[in-house]
Automatic annotation (TrEMBL):
<keyword id="KW-0472">Membrane</keyword>
<feature type="transmembrane region" description="Helical">
    <location>
        <begin position="88"/>
        <end position="111"/>
    </location>
</feature>
<feature type="transmembrane region" description="Helical">
    <location>
        <begin position="167"/>
        <end position="185"/>
    </location>
</feature>
<feature type="transmembrane region" description="Helical">
    <location>
        <begin position="123"/>
        <end position="147"/>
    </location>
</feature>
<feature type="transmembrane region" description="Helical">
    <location>
        <begin position="50"/>
        <end position="68"/>
    </location>
</feature>
<keyword id="KW-0812">Transmembrane</keyword>
<protein>
    <submittedName>
        <fullName>DUF3137 domain-containing protein</fullName>
    </submittedName>
</protein>
<keyword id="KW-1133">Transmembrane helix</keyword>
Length: 436
């Protein structure tokens, strides 16, 4: 218990150091500190593993007994089997008494690990007290009724009415509990991987001069500005937002990189074999990524390669069949779209449309541009190493992490700016002068 408490504290300290890092050198120092850490960094989860395998064994035995009773009843005439069956049924019939203190015991172990415990001087006394308190549940008559109803209901639900046996229900619950324990232990054992991903992400941000931006209230502003964010009918949120600066040969500009999440809520009606109809609510989650920046060279134009998003306004078709197959174009008027979509820009946008999934390029009436798509996050590059190999991870982090896809998109937007600049720049007027 003390060991696991130390491990939890050490990991929390490492995570705090990662979040406090402001430079690549800080991240390198954190990795080296992990490599040479004086304290323990791996949990001792033997008791929980024993519980996990014990639940799996109980589940297997209960399912075997239920199978033999249901399909091989009378064909098994073994004295050993009969004795084992009676022993299992004896233990199972009293499971509503020993399950509560068993659960309380393992909860007490976790509470001790986290430093949350009863005001008693010694750990064994605290664990024993919580175990006894859990056992007191067995003195409540209503608990036993609820327990057996739960097991029977679980068997009925999972087998679709094929069995109401509490033995089957117990086996299913034991399997679910063992799976939950396995997931929890796996997460604890592999804590280095998510921390490594966080280090790599921060290193990418530092290397590319990207700074986090507060997202509170921004989604409402974006909804008022861009049709792109009017998606879903339940939840809309910015999962992440970063600000950076691009420096090109002709134009330099500030931009924001975002990760957008939205949810569609729908109702599904199903009918079973008995003709009974049931209705349930389903939530479909979607993610979009993109860039936001000022674009003073055009306004009120929307290009969509996403069949689920249509813009308002006059439709425009260019002279390029390739472009027309990729994008549906709408604008305040056709002349605005024609001026913006020069042959060179059509070619550039066609390349973007082919490389991005469900791409949308929207220029608002106020001259703000949004480039959005369904592809992977622009920051989703995976490290080759992690904290399981600190020496190699340090070498990887110490180098320059370039976000290749982000750079390609920014270069393309710079190209659109450069080509649009000439289209919208006012030409100087010449005045003819005659001499007498």
């Amino acid at each position: 218990m003390n060991h696991n408490r130390q491990v939890a504290g050490n990991i929390a300290s490492i995570k705090a150091d990662v979040e406090a890092s402001t430079t690549q050198a800080d991240l390198v120092e954190v990795i080296r500190a992990v490599e040479n850490h004086p304290g323990p960094l791996d949990y001792n989860d033997r008791p929980m593993r024993l519980l996990q395998w014990g639940l799996i064994a109980l589940s297997a035995i209960c399912l075997a007994i239920a199978f033999i009773e249901g399909f091989l009843y009378g064909s098994v005439e073994s004295e050993v089997f009969y004795r084992v069956q009676q022993l299992i049924y004896f233990a199972f019939s009293f499971s509503s008494f020993w399950i509560p203190p068993l659960i309380a015991f393992f909860i007490a172990l976790r509470l001790e690990e986290r430093g949350l415990h009863l005001p008693l001087p010694a750990a064994p006394a605290r664990i024993a007290a919580i175990t006894v308190l859990g056992g007191l549940l067995a003195l409540v008559p209503m608990w036993h009724h609820i327990y057996w109803m739960l097991l029977s209901g679980t068997a009925t639900l999972v087998t679709n009415g094929g069995s109401r046996s509490p033995v089957v229900g117990f086996a299913i619950c034991a399997l679910v509990a063992s799976s939950a324990i396995w997931t929890s232990l796996r997460k604890r054992r592999n804590w280095r991987k998510p921390v490594s991903k966080r280090i790599y992400l921060l290193d990418s941000l530092f290397n590319n001069d990207l700074k986090p931006v507060a997202t509170k209230g921004r989604i409402e502003t974006l909804l008022d500005t861009f049709r792109e964010f009017d998606r879903g009918n339940h939840t809309r949120e910015l999962k992440a937002l970063y600000r950076g600066q691009y420096r090109g040969d002709e134009h330099s500009f500030d931009y924001e990189l975002y990760h957008f999440h939205y949810v569609r809520q729908r109702t599904v009606t199903t009918t079973d074999s008995q003709g009974n109809t049931s209705t349930r609510t389903v939530y479909d989650h979607y993610y979009r990524h993109g860039l936001l920046l000022d674009f003073p060279f055009a306004s009120g134009i929307g290009l969509s390669a996403d069949s689920g998003l249509k813009f308002k306004g006059e439709r425009y078709r260019s002279a390029s069949n390739t472009f027309n197959r990729l994008f549906d174009v709408r604008a305040e008027d056709e002349m605005s779209a024609a001026r913006f979509l020069s042959p060179a820009i059509l070619e550039l946008l066609s390349g973007l449309g082919k490389s991005l999934k469900d791409a949308v390029l929207e220029i608002s009436a106020e001259g703000r541009l949004c480039l959005a798509f369904d592809d992977d996050d622009l920051l989703s590059q995976k490290p080759q190493h992690d904290l399981n190999n600190p020496a190699a991870f340090v070498e990887e982090i110490a180098g320059h992490t370039e976000l290749v896809k982000l750079k390609q998109l920014l270069d393309a937007l710079h190209g659109i700016m450069r080509l649009s600049d000439n289209n919208f720049r006012a030409r100087p007027q010449t005045k003819e002068v005659t001499h007498d």
